[in-house]
Design brief:
The chain is mainly alpha-helical. It has 5 helices and 3 strands; from the N terminus they run ααβααββα.
């Protein structure tokens, strides 16, 4: 049953947009929403940023689709973490990107 759910989510999200990819990668470990922009900047050596609207849209959509979980603490801190479904989607994207990378290695530019 989980495999069917994972495949439906992979089919829905693949290929991931850069914003969705960075959002999922940034929540591989529990992280507060306020820390995510800095995490993305760190992951991309400051080359990519997400607008807050894009970030929160992705967080909301991925929470709704059970790719990530959201915990709200007593002080209203929102903490996000990837789920098994999110990990499956991210692994599928990793494999897709590896294929594209291999194709580029074989192309003479």
């Amino acid at each position: 049953m989980a495999t069917e759910l994972y495949q439906r989510l992979i089919d829905k999200y693949e290929p991931l947009t850069e914003a969705a990819f960075l959002t999922l990668v940034s929540v591989c470990e529990p992280i507060s929403s306020a820390e995510i922009p800095a995490k993305i900047a760190s992951l991309t050596n400051g080359q990519l940023q997400l607008g807050l609207g894009t970030l929160y849209t992705n967080l909301h959509m991925m929470t709704r689709d059970y790719l990530i979980t959201e915990r709200v603490d007593a002080d209203e801190t929102h903490t996000y973490e990837i789920t098994g479904s999110g990990t499956a989607v991210l692994a599928a994207e990793r494999d897709r990107l590896a294929l594209l990378n291999q194709i580029m290695k074989n192309v003479r530019l």
